[in-house]
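Example record

One chain of 490 residues, shown exactly as stored in the release files.
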Amino acid sequence: MKAKFILFIRYFLVLLFVYAAVSKIITFEAFQIQLTQSPLLSVYANLIAYLVIIVELIIALLLTIRESKLLGLYLSYGLLVAFTLYIYLILNYSDFIPCSCGGILEKMGWHEHLWFNIMVTIFTLLAIYFHDSKIKHFYIISPAITLVSCLTIILLFLSSEHIIKKENPFIRRFLPHGVVQDKILDLTVNSFYFSGHKNDIVYLGNFTAPLRFISIDEKLQRTDFQIQIDSLKLPYTNLRLKTVYPNFYLADGTIPIIFIGSLNNKEQKKVAKVLSYKEAYFSDFIPIDSTAIAIKGQSNKNYHNIIGILKPNSEPKVRINKDLLETKSDGVFDTDGMLTYSREDNNFLYTFYYKNQFIQTDHNLSLIKRHTTIDTTKTTNITTAKLTTGENKMTTPVKAINSKVIAHRNLLFIISNSMGQNESKKMWKQASIVDVYDFTSSSYIASFQINHLGEDKLSDILVTDHFIYGLFDKNLVRYKMAKSLISKFH
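Predicted structure tokens for this chain:
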């Protein structure tokens, strides 16, 4: 009876390991990518992908040879202990749970997979006990193998975490089902952009009709508004809207002028009055409140990018922090980037277009910390030429590594243009990739993809407590966020 049990377990393990190995070989690229997305083994994905297949086939071979079948059983036990501990760590100590492996266990959930492994491990240990004629060896070797297997997985986990967070090998961890499409709204035109939100009421400005804006409520019902200003004769070229409830702000930094109006009344015609006029030129602005506005602009001396605070009712009205944007080359393109603001944390984030860095400041633009992204591009080689006007022009076009940024609470969402290790070109052709960082703990959280809507790519993004909103040409799409991502808000 014992001999039949041992024989059954041996050939069951042979079948299991051979099938698993062959399945991995057939879908090797997908298997590599799955390992790369593992929260525990990301760094070692390439090595482990080959090693697991080789070990599974060698063990299967040892199990079929009479002289080495006991060795095969011991090695099977060690491998199963390692797999079981790996699944346990994923379920209990991982920030998120990745997609399951392929092959025979593809249809299993992670909990079912864990129990399957536990049962097979127990049966394998029992087969070893029945087979090993020297019981002393069993009581020495089996605990030793258990310890080695557990220590191996734990050390791999700890070292992988250290390398990901400290040595930056540019390996993304993709959230499975990071966002799930909820609803779509046809906006009829493709000139909208996000200007802000209040809870789950979203406001959108219009590039081609800057005196018009809309709100979208939680049911995705649209309301149109008209802005009335009394300075219509000024040469506006870049009027942009920002909404910070209970106010909205309309500004053109080329004049420069900033209007303020109220969102509180239910009238569709909104009156805006001048808040600031000819006090500071700027290319972008972010209202903190009705008394202070952060601005991004260029120095009138050398055209270097600068960031400051405009306070229309204070003296001095403009305060520039000249030390924030450090330059090692032209001072224009190497410091160019996007300014965003977390109202819940009262922090500004400035993310560079052409290098793997973002800056965190307080509401007065005093530096808190310089952070690096998982992209490994420390500096981009940008060649420039100075025009007779004194302006710098890029002579060799370079693609930005960070294209869009939005901050919400303690998280920073960056739409990236850079492909990480072991990522599929096919995925990049059909989706935009969003990297998520916790700037309060200076850590990379995870990434997720937002698929193109037909032929239309994601052009703008906005994040609330419950949803992520995306703009695709004429359509607004609302997505539900993964619970593992929502849990990171604080």
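Notes: The first helix runs from residue 2 to 26.
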